[in-house]
Design a protein that fits this description.
The radius of gyration is 18 Å and the shape is globular. The protein is built from nine helices and seven strands. The strands form two sheets. Strands 1, 2, 3, 6 and 7 form a five-stranded parallel β-sheet that branches. The chain is an alpha/beta fold and 258 residues long.
Length: 258
Amino acid sequence: MQKRKHTIMAHPPSATPGQTGERSGALRALSAWAARALYPDHCGLCLAPLPEGGAICPACRKDLVRVEAPCPGCAAPLPATVACPACQRRPPAVDALRAPWAYAWPLDRVLLAYKRSGHARAERILVDLAAQAARERRDVPTPLPTRVVPVPLHPSRLRERGFNQCEPLARCVAEVLGLPLDTACVRRVRATPSQQTLSGPQRRRNLRDAFAVNAELAGERVLLVDDVVTTGATLDALARALRAAGAASVEGLALARA
C-alpha cells in the first residue's frame, strides 16, 4: 500500500530540560489553541476538509491498521479469537484487554508526536480514536466498568514530560461511557527503568511493587486506559494492585497494540 502524505511529524522537537511542568503545560495549551484556530474543520492527519465531525477524514481513518481477532487477554493479533499461548501459560490479571489498532503507520507517528511534545493535532486525533474505542466497548454485551482510571506516571516522569498522555484519553472514554474519571486512586510509587528493550518476563519483574492503590475498591469494576500496549505487563501489574485493593474486575483499553 502506498503511504498517503500525512503532516504529523515523525520526530517532533522534544521539550528542553527546563521546559517542563507549568511551562510545558502552557505551551501545550497554546499549541492546542493554535490548532483549533488554524484547522478547525480539517483532518488532523492530512489537513483535508472534514465532511462531518471528528478529527480524521475517512481516507486517513482507513489507513489505520485494525488488530483482527486479538487475544482477549493481551490484545495480540491471532488467527482466531482465543487466548494466545503466553496468556494460556500465565493468565493475565485483566479480565479483558482491547487495543483496536496496531502500532503501525500512521498511528505510531501520531503517538510519538503526542508523547514527545504534546503535539496538539496529535492529541485531537488520539482523543477522537479514544471516543471510537469507547463506543465499541459500550457495544460489548458485558457490564460496564464503574470507574475509568488512566495509567499513572511516576512523579519524576510527570515533571519531566509535563503531562500524562493517558489522561485526555481516559477523560474522553469516561465521558463517552458516562462513568467517573479517577486519576487519584492509584499511584506509580517506583520509578522504573525504560522497558523498551525488555522481554515480557523482564517487564513484569521491572514493574514489581511499582504501583500503590489509595482507595477502597471493594466491588468496583475498573477500566484502565493506556495509549500503547506492548506485552501488557504494565496493565497486568496495575490490575494485580487494584484486585489486591478489592476490585471485582479490571479491564484494559489502549489505542494501539505494538
